[in-house]
Automatic annotation (TrEMBL):
Biological process, per Gene Ontology: homophilic cell adhesion via plasma membrane adhesion molecules
GO molecular function: calcium ion binding
Domain of life: Eukaryota
Protein name: Uncharacterized protein
PROSITE patterns: CADHERIN_2 (PS50268)
Length: 95
C-alpha cells in the first residue's frame, strides 16, 4: 500500500492501519511502510468459505481462490489528523 502526502514534516508522514474482523488475525499491515502481509497460515475454513470463481485454466476448468475484503486507513500525523478510509480492499489469495 502506498499513500503520498505532499506536506512536509509530521503532516507528510503517513501511517497505515487495518480494520475489520481479519485485523491482526489473518492479515496485518506495517504501520510505517504500508506492507500488507499474512499474519499466520489461513485456516482451512476460510479457504473453503471464501472462494470465488476467477479464471479459466488452459484445460477450460474454473479455478477458485479464497477472496477477502479488508478495510484500511491511511492517516497523516499532522494536526488535525486526516485519514483516508478504504472500506472494500479485495484480496485474493492464489496458491
Amino acid at each position: 500500500l502506498l499513500a503520498i502526502d505532499p506536506d512536509e514534516g509530521l503532516n507528510g508522514q503517513v501511517s497505515y492501519a487495518i480494520k475489520g474482523e481479519t485485523a491482526g488475525i489473518l492479515f496485518n499491515v506495517d504501520p510505517r511502510t504500508g506492507l500488507l502481509y499474512l499474519e499466520s497460515q489461513i485456516p482451512r475454513q476460510y479457504i473453503t468459505n471464501n472462494k470465488q470463481k476467477t479464471t479459466i485454466n488452459n484445460q477450460g476448468n474454473d479455478l477458485t481462490y479464497p477472496t477477502f475484503l479488508l478495510a484500511l486507513d491511511a492517516c497523516d500525523h499532522g494536526e488535525p489528523r486526516r485519514c483516508t478510509h478504504f472500506p472494500n480492499l479485495q484480496i485474493q489469495v492464489t496458491y
